[in-house]
Task: structure prediction
Amino acid sequence: MKLHNFVRFVKSIKNISEILLPSRVQDFLTRALGAETFLSQVEFHLVDHCNLNCAHCDHFTPLSKPCFIPVEDILSDFKKLKRIFDNVGKIYILGGEPLLHPQLLELFSPLREIYPKSELIIITNGILLEKMGKDFWNALKEYKISLSMTKYPIKVDYEKYIEKCGSMGIKSYFFASERFCMQKMDLDYKGNQDKKKAFERCWRKRCHFLRDSKLYICTPIPNIRFLNEYFGINFSVGKKDFINLDKEKSAARINRLFNRPVEFCKYCSDSETEFEDYRVSKKEITEWVREESLKDIF
Result:
């Protein structure tokens, strides 16, 4: 059998098994055959707030009160995730601004122990890098933490830190090479968007987010609370918008659920993405929510 025909045959068997076999049977066979249950990537907050104030932030950090997530809570969530997924491709350490967390270095070793093969990536705006001591840089090297910097139009010598990482053997890169524009959120408060189209167009649907023993398909859903609280509105998050890790034990089922729209997708734009030049947030609701969808509400 030619190689391309064999690959096609294997894929067809996989697709049939995903349809016919129960999720837990798929998980059992995966492990029985010596393969790993795998999740492409996951991200989480160390802190909810930030030392920048960016319009259109899809984590809604300009609206968040200062909040430092306990390291033990984060590790507890990852231990639960580990019981389901043997491996995660990439784990993003985020905020807000993660370098604000006073116990940041206490996270690296135990998280690396839980997921020894994952790429651990800390994403920062770079403002606090000048204040980080040798223990921070040595920890990045020791625990193989990649440093990803979002290149905002601010007074930070990003190239200097790229060079520093290179000299220490630390993997580094820019999360966005030039962050002079921001993607508009453009949420529809009335929830009249086509969920399937919104899902197909969405670039956030692979940004799976872990918090409070729950796994979300994307970043905005768990963090919409900040928008709701600040403006006194209610973008609803239902039980079908997340996976409860205390109840769901099947990697196959989670991956399958995350390959289709969730109920929250009705709020997300089903049209082409719009971009705006980078600017500081004025904390106006229209930075995140489509103005016409607010008529008769405010």
The two ends are 66 Å apart (CA to CA).
